[in-house]
Design a protein that fits this description.
81% helix
């Protein structure tokens, strides 16, 4: 089924590196949460540690995008993974030696967030350097399958490891996966696809500054209507959906059908994510972005089910369908970006997309509690579901989004990004 991609050594090394890194990263949050709670005895420390990781990740995304376009992405990824191995290894050492203290753990997680800001844009940009344009959807499907599978398995494995061996070894395993991933990524050469890009980036780096590169990225981002329309759509969906689902979801589910149901709901969503990412390996459509935008509306379904006070089977089914839609959207969006955004600005454009999409998450998380107190939780999730679905489908009113075609291998790269039609 996947032979055409796995026959390519470059993709095999990259996929293996991502798989081990994703497994460690999916295990780390559970281990870190238990480690900090056990060592400190309160949730205040955990909140500080989590914020210390997230704030630099958001603050430096644009710098990370500029660096990934400015220098060889392979080098950026190896350096970031080695740095992450050191920071997580430092946290593990503090825990294993019984020397936990809030300040050093927060500093190490801050540094880990800094490194994450450089990792994400480089990962977005490196995939087109690994595979032919005709195989981008399949590559993103496989990478999405790995990501979704580790989301299902990682937290459970971490929980078992924490119970059996403690939080320190679980964090140490995350550090080891970063180190192993760096070794696997070091096997990449990218010679046939990156020599020109590397020479161009090096020449550009000599005559421009990172700040100028960031401004140029914003210009390119604005010049692509389908990109900024899609990003605005995701921003609005994250604003109304993420906090409602993460905070009100478990509370309202417990009221309707008990605490155990929430675990089944999350598992059903995870199965939907994995199933759709596998399906996308074979699915062929002419307007991939249009499909992704339509399926993004399915993520609102479990909120609407909760708002309607429906029973547990409906909520579990809704979560499964939402997982299907979210996975199709992710593969469609990544593939569209990689097909249509010029390689020399791809990481910067992707960093603006990530930043503007993710900034809405903490705003939604902070506002959902007061809204629920004022209007009631069930009413809030119902309205959030309606608004999320509307935000998903409204971009289809734009012809740039609706008519963006699949890129053809025999079609020349666009000379200027302003001429490229849009995607979500």
């Amino acid at each position: 089924m996947h032979s055409s991609l796995f026959q390519q050594a470059e993709f095999r090394w990259f996929f293996a590196g991502r798989l081990v890194s994703l497994l460690g990263s999916s295990m780390a949050p559970v281990a870190l949460a238990f480690a900090v709670l056990d060592a400190s005895g309160n949730g205040h420390d955990l909140g500080i540690v989590l914020a210390a990781h997230m704030l630099p990740l958001l603050a430096l995304l644009l710098v990370g995008g500029a660096v990934a376009d400015r220098f060889p992405r392979r080098t950026v990824l190896i350096a970031a993974h080695l740095g992450s191995a050191l920071t997580q290894g430092g946290v593990a050492a503090l825990l294993l030696t019984g020397h936990y203290a809030l300040a050093p753990v927060a500093v190490l997680e801050f540094l880990n967030g800094v490194l994450g800001a450089f990792t994400t844009p480089a990962l977005r940009g490196v995939v087109p350097q690994l595979v032919d344009k005709t195989l981008l959807q399949q590559a993103n499907s496989l990478l999405g399958s790995a990501r979704n599978a580790t989301k299902i398995l990682g937290p459970s494995l971490s929980g078992v490891l924490v119970v059996v061996a403690g939080s320190g070894p679980a964090i140490a395993f995350d550090a080891f996966t970063y180190l192993l991933a760096a070794g696997l990524l070091a096997r990449l050469t990218l010679a046939d696809r990156t020599d020109t890009d590397t020479a161009t980036a090096t020449a550009t780096a000599r005559r421009t500054t990172v700040l100028r590169d960031i401004r140029e990225g914003w210009t390119e981002f604005r010049a692509l209507p389908w990109v900024w329309i899609g990003t605005l759509s995701f921003c609005l969906m994250n604003l109304v959906q993420t906090g409602s689902w993460q905070i009100l979801g478990p509370q309202l589910t417990r009221q309707l059908s008990g605490e155990a149901t929430w675990g089944f709901v999350l598992s059903a969503r995870g199965v939907g994510l994995l199933a759709a990412s596998l399906l996308m390996y074979r699915l062929v459509v002419r307007h991939l972005l249009r499909l992704g935008q339509l399926t993004s509306a399915l993520a609102a379904l479990p909120l609407l089910v909760l708002g309607a006070h429906l029973d547990a089977p409906w909520l579990i089914a809704g979560a499964f369908v939402a997982g299907l839609g979210s996975s199709v959207t992710a593969v469609s969006w990544d593939t569209s970006l990689q097909e249509h955004v010029p390689a020399q600005v791809l990481s910067r454009v992707a960093s603006y997309d990530d930043l503007l999409s993710y900034l809405a998450v903490p705003v939604g998380q902070l506002s959902v509690g007061p809204l629920a107190q004022a209007f009631g939780g069930f009413r809030v999730v119902a309205v959030a579901g309606v608004l999320s679905a509307a935000a998903a489908v409204l971009p289809l009113a734009s012809t740039a989004v609706r008519r963006l075609p699949r890129a053809r291998p025999d079609r020349a790269e666009p000379a200027a990004p302003a001429t490229v039609p849009g995607t979500t």
